[in-house]
Design goal:
The protein has helices at residues 2-10, 13-16, 20-42, 56-85, 100-126, 133-144. The protein is mainly alpha-helical and 153 residues long.
């Protein structure tokens, strides 16, 4: 949000760098997917990834769906800002003055970012016992934030 509102809108990065919106939406999709991945674990009381009995495909699907849901909420926010405060968050692009093309590309880039992170998350869960570089990072995050994760039975 900071990169979008303050740098993109406030500092004019959207008009100075044609790729700014693409990068932001791809990163946001990935970050929301990572949050969805951690939520799947937190709500199931998993303490460490290697102790997990969750199905890797479910975790990846949940992460993607969470990310897509958050992306849709962001696009609704952009639409509301444009209508209520006459901003230009949904920009005209490719000869489409309505902003629909911008919205669709935003959602596509969010989906690509979510897919990349979800595939990494799937690998992390599927091969947790063999050791994946993300496993240690996620285990450390869970251990440092005990209030977010209940101990497993």
């Amino acid at each position: 949000m900071i990169a979008s509102l303050f740098l993109g809108e406030g500092r004019g990065f959207y008009s100075r760098f044609w790729w700014w919106d693409i990068v932001l939406h791809t990163i946001a999709g990935g970050l929301f997917s990572a949050v969805g991945f951690l939520l799947a674990y937190g709500t199931n009381g998993i303490v460490r990834i290697r102790e997990s009995t969750m199905v890797p495909g479910f975790v990846a699907l949940f992460a993607i769906m969470f990310s897509l849901g958050m992306s849709v909420i962001w696009e609704i926010f952009e639409f509301g800002m444009d209508r209520l405060f006459d901003t230009n968050m949904q920009r005209a692009m490719l000869n489409d003055p309505s902003g629909l093309t911008d919205t669709m590309w935003d959602l596509i880039m969010n989906a690509l970012g979510a897919l990349m992170v979800s595939v990494l998350g799937w690998r992390c869960v599927k091969y947790a016992k063999q050791g994946v570089f993300l496993k240690d990072w996620i285990d450390t995050f869970i251990e440092r934030n005990p209030r977010l994760f209940k101990k497993s039975r």
